[in-house]
Amino acid sequence: MGLLLLLLLIGQTACSSPSAEVAAQEVQEPTETFARRRVVVGADSLVRGRLLDRNDSVLVATGTLHLLKLPRKGTLDTLALGQLLGWGPATIKRRIANALPYDNAPNGYPVNLRLTAAEAARVRKARKQWPTLVLSTQVGRRYTANAGAAVLGYPAAEAQAFFTQAKRTQRGRFYQLRNGGVEGYYNGLLTGRVGYLHPLIDSLGQNRGSWATDTVFRQGQDLHLTIDRNLQAYAEQLMGNRKGYLVALDPKTGEILAYVSGPVYDPATLTAPDQAKVRSEMLYDENRPLINRPAMLANPPGSVFKLVNAAVALQLGAIKPGTGFKCDQRLIKCVHNHPVPSSLTVGLKYSCNPYFYQTMRNLIQRMPDSLVVDTVAARHANLAEWRRYVRSFGLDSVLGVDIPREAPGFLPTPEYYDKARGTRRWTYRSIYSLSIGQGEINMTGLQMANMTAIIANRGWYYPPHLVRSIGEDGPLPRFLEKRHTLIDSANFEALLPGMVGVMQRGGTAETSSLADVGITVAGKTGTVENGGADDDDHAAFVGFAPADNPKIVVAVYLENAGFGATAAAPCAVMVMEKHLRGSIAPKRKRWEARVKHRARNGY
Fold first, then answer.
1. Structure confidence by residue, pLDDT tens digits, 459-477
2. pTM above 0.85?
3. In the chain, where the domains are located
4. Where are the alpha helices (DSSP H) in 186-322?
5. DSSP 3-state assignment of 316?
6. Taking a C-beta distance cutoff of 8 angstroms, is the pair 541, 524 a contact?
7. 33: which residues sit within 8 A by CB, 6+ positions away?
8. 295-601 architecture in CATH?
9. What is the per-residue pLDDT across 421-471, written as a single tens digit (0 to 9) for each?
10. Residue 462, C-beta contacts closer than 8 angstroms, at least 6 positions apart
11. Counting C-beta atoms within 10 Å of the first and last residue's C-beta, which end of the chain has fewer, N or C?
């Protein structure tokens, strides 16, 4: 029976249909597979974009850096090496000392010195006489000027040594060092990107389509900054080693013309291989030069804020341009001897504290009919309304400037005072410091300059920015959007006579007038109480020129410098004069020299 079954199976197999046989063959035939490839496009031609000023002068570009490595063993004749490089005895000692991370570094610590192309050529020619010197090159960012550190910033990839130092000294978080300036903010556009093709290749090497979406090669974009190289360098000379900031901008466009954070330093310091000691000293410097003050540091603005309070008071009907008040010293001290402030113009010209105390009191203690009995609710509502109008100046929020880590500043709310005072029944007397820009109000330097631009424009502004074009395109779209405040233009116009009066005879900044060169400046001084008995007050000034057709706005803030009229105003008006005329009049040359001397010595 088993044999019979076997014969039957063999017979069925032999009688199978031809179609089934063919189908079996088709299934067994192997299918062709395609190789996935990834082709990089443009890797050899990708170059990081340059930074240029508003007049197309190159500020930063990628180039060849020449490094000289000194021998780690044996003695080195530094005098002879200095002669070879064309450096004097003091220069060679200073350059080597700056390359070491700290004083008394052990012998043999690696030292690399940056050389110019000419200096590197001298070393090559003398190679036989100096066999222990090692000359090398690398690609990196080259700075053509020693100004603009807070603007230009650095690529994070080239600042790793600095980040390591900051981490070791536990100062990195304190300084928020990874702000990177324009280099950090626009890193992706500056770097560009390589392209990628994703072909499918058959066994014969033929292209059979793509296995993924291809990406296009994009060269690193040049950034044309709004900064004026010469004005930036001049403004940094006026700031020097002092703590503070200076921001100058074009009110009609929001383009920043000069952006200074003091104390100032060379922009190459944070990435240069031979600046380890300088970086270490900066990390521990009590003046905190690494803080990007105009964007990251918010302070009470002082009396310059009286301009905002006056505009809001006019808008809400708390005062009129002709409103006068007594200079009542019992309310608040007034440091200036001046005539009775019979109008807003006189109050601004002499910066009368009692005048603005009473102006703000009219604002906060107004009694709408619906709240005539509930004075607590009225104060809360009035403070909230004041805050809403003030916020339309771009305060208590970031302006969106193209630099990392911009601080928002602060404006108090009614709820803030409820919590801070421990009761809802606080009175105007407990918050009156708002009237003179003190107390809980905090503003950044960028906000201070933008506030002044709003007044210059009579109520509108373009957000301040540092890049006017990216490659062949314009700035980022948001910088072309005009923004308006909640204040009518007529109420800004009412501020102008008082601001012009500040710069005229008897005004708080009369000595800073530019009338001798035909320029009418509109300004406002500020002296900010510091709270400490042993520390001098901060000096502030804001202004624009020409007053009738503003082309430049300047905001200056000098920490512990004393009066705004004598410390901050001179710096501001000289920057205005430099921008508008190109030079400083002989009448102010001695004054200019005195300011620069103070800047170098840090006071």
1. 999 999 999 999 999 999 9
2. yes
3. 63-142, 295-601
4. 187-191, 229-239, 276-284, 293-296, 306-315
5. coil
6. yes
7. none
8. 3-Layer(aba) Sandwich (3.40)
9. 999 999 999 999 999 999 999 999 999 999 999 999 999 999 999 999 999
10. 252, 253, 254, 479, 480, 481, 482, 483
11. N
